[in-house]
Amino acid sequence: MPAEIIDGKAFAETVRARVAGHVTQLRAEQGLTPGLAVVLVGEDPASQVYVRNKGIQTKESGMASFEHRLPAETPEAALLGLIGELNSDPAVHGILVQLPLPAHLNADLVINAIAPEKDVDGFHILNVGRLNTGQKSMVPCTPLGCLMLLRDRLGDLSGLNAVVLGRSNIVGKPMASLLLRDSCTVTVAHSRTRDLPDVCRNADILVAAVGRPRMVPGDWIKPGATVIDVGINRVPAPEKGEGKTRLVGDVDFDSAVEVAGAITPVPGGVGPMTIACLLANTLTACCRANG
Ligand code: GUN
């Protein structure tokens, strides 16, 4: 029997509706409007699309959206100056600096300049440390979205074997932390992992976040497993016409869907959850800032 398709788009809509309801209530009862500032440095085309979508959905949820688009050659001091201003602006509850940054900018320094309580990406070193030690923190949006989908499908994750493919600071590492916090037995696999197919075949939960199109075939998947595909890869699609492209995940969907118990599609799986969680984190930051 083919896998259940996990509808991240529909789930994200319910999260966004819930956030919008809280925003309406905050405004009516406390006169507060949560605000999210997004900073984009340079002209990376994918980043421009993400930032535009973040702005649109922020406004749709009733929050204030502040967009700062800076030229690629912006000096580090100028970017740090802007972050300092946003840190002390009471209308701004969340700050997100879109990654990747141009090579002359030190991403760690920039991220760690954001006030931790406004770090809605959860990338600040204090939030990373808090997450890893079980303290209240901002949780990175993509792994948080994956966790919500997993809990929704599986309920209690305790004792399940979870394999996270990829060890990035944005997805792989925080995903592993969250699954460990939910009492999974967690393996983080990466490009140097030996016997990768066998490691994957042991997974009740497989989260693929490596950025390699269709890298995971169906025969790496344990029958009945829940597969979360974080990859968003653009590949040529000659079947759609000359020069056309389409998006595929890190998992080979067509073979995986025959084996898995449930799987997220690309697009329409994890992607929409990321922005929904960003809005939820901004709301959380606003509530915490105002007691
Ligand atoms: N670039 C790709 N994903 C992300 C993300 O979740 N946050 C930020 N700031 N940049 C990204």
UniProtKB/TrEMBL annotation:
Pathway it works in: One-carbon metabolism; tetrahydrofolate interconversion
Keywords for the protein's UniProt record, in alphabetical order: Amino-acid biosynthesis, Histidine biosynthesis, Hydrolase, Methionine biosynthesis, Multifunctional enzyme, NADP, One-carbon metabolism, Oxidoreductase, Purine biosynthesis
Pfam families tied to this protein:
THF_DHG_CYH, THF_DHG_CYH_C
Residue ranges of the Tetrahydrofolate dehydrogenase/cyclohydrolase NAD(P)-binding domain? Answer: 140-288
Which transformation does this protein catalyse, written as a reaction?
A: (6R)-5,10-methenyltetrahydrofolate + H2O = (6R)-10-formyltetrahydrofolate + H(+); (6R)-5,10-methylene-5,6,7,8-tetrahydrofolate + NADP(+) = (6R)-5,10-methenyltetrahydrofolate + NADPH
Q: Which residues form the Tetrahydrofolate dehydrogenase/cyclohydrolase catalytic domain?
A: 6-121
Q: Which family does it belong to?
A: Belongs to the tetrahydrofolate dehydrogenase/cyclohydrolase family.
UniProt xrefs under Gene3D superfamilies:
Leucine Dehydrogenase, chain A, domain 1, NAD(P)-binding Rossmann-like Domain
Which residues take part in binding NADP(+)? G166, R167, S168, I232
Q: What is the gene called?
A: folD
Which taxonomic lineage is given here? Bacteria, Pseudomonadati, Pseudomonadota, Alphaproteobacteria, Rhodobacterales
Q: What is the protein named?
A: Bifunctional protein FolD
| Keyword tRNA processing part of the UniProt annotation | no
GO CC terms on record? cytosol
Coiled coil ranges: none
Q: Under which EC number(s) is this enzyme classified? A: 1.5.1.5, 3.5.4.9
UniProt function note: Catalyzes the oxidation of 5,10-methylenetetrahydrofolate to 5,10-methenyltetrahydrofolate and then the hydrolysis of 5,10-methenyltetrahydrofolate to 10-formyltetrahydrofolate.
Q: Which SUPFAM superfamilies match?
A: Aminoacid dehydrogenase-like, N-terminal domain, NAD(P)-binding Rossmann-fold domains
**Which GO molecular-function terms appear in the entry?**
methenyltetrahydrofolate cyclohydrolase activity; methylenetetrahydrofolate dehydrogenase (NADP+) activity
- What is the annotated quaternary arrangement, including any partners? Homodimer.
Entry keyword annotation includes tRNA-binding: no
Which InterPro entries does this one have?
Aminoacid_DH-like_N_sf, NAD(P)-bd_dom_sf, THF_DH/CycHdrlase, THF_DH/CycHdrlase_cat_dom, THF_DH/CycHdrlase_CS, THF_DH/CycHdrlase_NAD-bd_dom
Q: In Gene Ontology terms, what is a biological process of this protein?
A: tetrahydrofolate interconversion
